Each structure stands twice: as structure tokens, then as C-alpha cells.
Amino acid sequence: MPSPEDVAAVRFTEPADIRSAAEALRDRVAKMCGLRTAVSHNIAVREPMRDGDGAILASEVFGFREGEGRWWEAPQLALSSPLVHACRVEAEPFWCNARGFHTRIANPLLDAIDLSDFRARAMTSAALVVPIHLPFGQIGAASFLSPDPQREDLSGPYASAVDALAVLARAFIQSYVKITARVRQDMAGVSLTKREVECLRWAAAGKTNDEIGLILGLQRTTVRFHIRAASLKLDAVNRDQTLFKAAQLGFLGMIR
Known about the structure:
By secondary structure, the protein is an alpha+beta fold.
């Protein structure tokens, strides 16, 4: 595992320290296992991570220059990359190549991911990936790649260094998100009642207000009242947005 000093080196509290923390992450990963680092604070957007002066970290710090896999310039990457798909259904580190995904505990959801034309779609022959699931449904990721673009087996680095890589990657990306992301004051302090959560959970399952009323023993108007109350608390404009925001905050996964 990394030392407290290593973790401290990749954490930061000011935008001015982003670049030095990124350099520390790059250098420690290279020393630890000889791999290159590629990081994203949000796999759903093309916007690359930047230092306090606006320079793109991927090119200026992590060394992805012209002619290499510049993922932030690929418009369909979030929809086409098997690495991105995997981060949506797996929360633990994994490594993968064109022959499959490798995890400590089997995940059947990974087996359903299309690996055809892997090199072109993943922009690498193999990758060791740390998914980082963040508040409000945001997913970041750190990919660790071989300097040899033809290398297809990362089982060695995965076995020897994956836990340490995960600690460093999470510390860096979580710091970046906290420092640069827009503050979500509109949702951070929301509290829903038990009835509101129950109504939303059944609504998310596709039930109508009448059906929810039958299930919970409530009048249809009462169901509408609870869903409307939740909408107001979540500052949502319609039922779909209410369910989306409730899901982001984890309410829909709560035990009945």
C-alpha cells in the first residue's frame, strides 16, 4: 500500500496544486509498476481534467501527445469504449484486454460488454482500470496503461499493485472533483420522508399512482401528494426529473 506521504502528495485543496499532485500521481505510478496514467473525473463528458491554469493534464502532465490515444478528443468514447461501459457496472478495479475482463470477484455484467474491435474502441491493447463512483451519480476513472502499445497482459501489475493504485487514484480524483465541481447546494441537504421514498421507489418501477395506492394502501390523491412533495424538495420540474434526482441521491435504493 502507498505510504501516508504518497497519498498526501496526490491530494490537494487548491486549484494551484492540481498540477503538482498530478505529477506526483504520474511519478509514483511509474515507479510502482512502470505504467502510464490516464485519469478522468467524469466518464460521461469529454471535458478533460485541467490544472489551475487551464492546461490539459492528459497531455501536459501524463504525456499523451499527438498521435497517441487522446481520449478527450474522441466524441463517441463515452458511448463506444468498453472501458467506459465497464466502469458503469463495476466499482472495483479490473484489468482487461480483447479477450475479456479480469476481476477478483466475477461480475456477470462485464461478460455482456462487447469487446469486438477492442484496440480501436478502447484506444489501448490492455488497461488496468480503477472506477471511482462519486456523489450524484458521477463516475470517474483512472486507467493505467503499458508504455508498450502492443502489451496485452497486465495481470502482473494488477496482482502486485492494484490496491495501491486504487488508493492514489481515488485520492487524486476525489480531490479534483471537490475543488473544481459546481457545488450542489440544491440537493446536498435534501431529506425525504419514508412515504415519499416508498412512492418514488414504486414509481421508478413503472407503477402508476393508482397502482402505488393499491400497493401501499393509500388514496391516489395521497400518492400524488407525496410524489409532488418530493418533487418540490428536489427542485424537480416533472416526475422523470424527480426520479432521476432521487436516484442520484441514493433514495431509490433504500430498504423499504
